[in-house]
Amino acid sequence: MVAVFLAITDGDDPRWRNRQSLKCGIYVTILLLVFFLAGTYILQFFGFTIHAVNITGGLIIGVIGWQLLFPKDQRKVTKAEHVEAQEKKDVSFVPLTMPIVAGPGAISVVVTAAVKITQSEDSLIEWLVVGSVIPIIGLLTWLCFRFAPALLRFLGKAGLNAMSRIMGFIVLCIAAEMMIQGLVGVAYQHFIDTPQKTSLLLYGLDYLV
């Protein structure tokens, strides 16, 4: 997102740009922590299952990964949003934090992690581990944006594009894994959690073959 950050803050005072990067890192940490801690309650309130979150999150993250792997001009910010962001005084929350860094994909990941941890025997340790990783993500966000001009000079546009494509492939793999887990969970819940359903599923597969 370094190139997007530089485009949005183009022409701003360097000290102001640094403050925007710091506030963005803080907002990312707070937003993801809120969804991480409240993820289970959010699913219970709306009646969603973890399988639905896995599949939907996988689809969202897959789109993001595809855009990283095959980037286009103004990939993350439309022309209208770009102009609006440049005119706004403070862009640290919108659009930097939402939806560029901590967008639907990141939120679905932390919500999924929260639900899985509640089902784990070592939940306390996992709460602490994931809860400590989120501030590190906020710190890395701040560092990347803080040193964005230097990073762009060091890597160049070609280097940034190469890194984006590599990360796009990794993100697509994460999306595929989330969707596989969601689909397997749905299959187990609806087809193979009882002998009768297992027999029905095997009969249906045998009929198709």
Order of helices and strands: HHHHHHHHH
Helix residue percentage: over 70%
Count of separate DSSP helical elements:
9
What is the terminal separation in angstroms?
47 Å
Number of strands: 0
Strand content: under 5%
Overall mean pLDDT stands at 81
Task: Give Rg in angstroms.
Answer: 20 Å
Shape: globular
Taking pLDDT < 50 over at least 5 consecutive residues as the criterion, the unreliable ranges are none
Describe this structure in words.
The protein is mainly α. The protein has one domain. It has nine helices and no strands. α1 packs across α8 and α3 runs antiparallel to α8. The termini are far apart. The model has no long low-confidence stretch (mean pLDDT 81).
Q: In summary, what is this structure?
A:
By secondary structure, the chain is mainly α.
What features would you highlight for this structure?
single chain, 209 residues
SSE blueprint:
Layout: H1 2-8, H2 14-46, H3 50-69, H4 79-87, H5 92-101, H6 104-118, H7 123-146, H8 148-190, H9 195-208
